[in-house]
Amino acid sequence: MTRDAPDTDAPDTDTSAERHYRNWTVLAPLGLLATGLGASGVGQSTLLKGRGAPTWKWVAAGTASLVALNAGLCLFGDAIKHRPNHCFSDHAAPIALSLTVVANRVPIRQTDDGWETSVGGLTTALLPVLEEEGGMWVGMGEDPDLPERQEYPADDPDFLVRRVPLSSKELEGYYYGMANQILWPLSHYLIQHLNLDDQFIETYRQVNERFAEAVLAETETGDEDVIWIQDYHQMLSPNLIRQERPDATIGHFWHIPWPSAPTTSSSASTGSTTRKAFGRACWPSRSSWRRIPSTTAM
Q1: What is the pLDDT of residues 261-290, one digit of tens each?
Q2: Which domain holds residue 141?
Q3: What tens digit of pLDDT does each residue of 209-244 get?
Q4: Are 127 and 275 in a shared domain?
Q5: In a domain, 89, yes or no
Q6: How far apart are CA 209 and CA 203, in angstroms?
Q7: Is residue 91 part of a domain?
Q8: pTM, two decimal places
Q9: Angle, alpha carbons 80-83-85 (nearest 5°)
Q10: Of 53, 80, 107, which residue is a domain's last?
């Protein structure tokens, strides 16, 4: 009697599961470490410039920090491909994820030759994941002639581009106002450049709500959802999405320095107005502040 030869074409689920889990546990911490170091370095280079350090010193520090940031994003983007589900077992195949990226701008642009991908660190890191796994990228729509929903590429779509159309007034208050004239100088300790306009704050909150609504309208209520929210333009979106997607994995990457407590609460020159800009403007109450770790942690 002869024994049948083993089926060499059968998938080795044990080996595959272990490999994916090992890659996830290595790449994810490295990516988070690199992005953290990079963000910290950007803050330090800004401080060096403000203190009158030699140009070469703060430029070198800033360049190295940006390299670390981009490397961290690339590492974490690769790690997401290997992310196991919370019920991942030794004999389970890797679960298919659903990735949604929420950023200020969409990752494609129109040229004379048609549509092409944009250039940037976030696009370089996460677009390959969308192209391989599918998903959605949510960003603001500045041109009213462009569609809200656009599959890309058109001939053989890999992912969906979802635009949140903004009027010129909304763009002025949300982006050129709150983001550029309040959050950016506040996070870089440039208090003297703050423009604390209440309308900027209110428009910012309204636009963040619309971004969150777009994500909720396009995603399913499952624990396979991975939602990556990028930067200080979207401070409110994580908590708004978490309230409706309690089982989703939500990450919020803050790309600029996080201001110290004295900067946001006890500035001698701005006092309560600074506190309002970074407190009431961004989170309605102290209870919302306490919920932040659960909404922004991976």
Answers
A1: 666 554 434 444 444 444 434 444 333 333
A2: 98-296
A3: 999 999 999 987 766 788 999 999 998 999 899 989
A4: yes
A5: no
A6: 10
A7: no
A8: 0.65
A9: 140
A10: 80
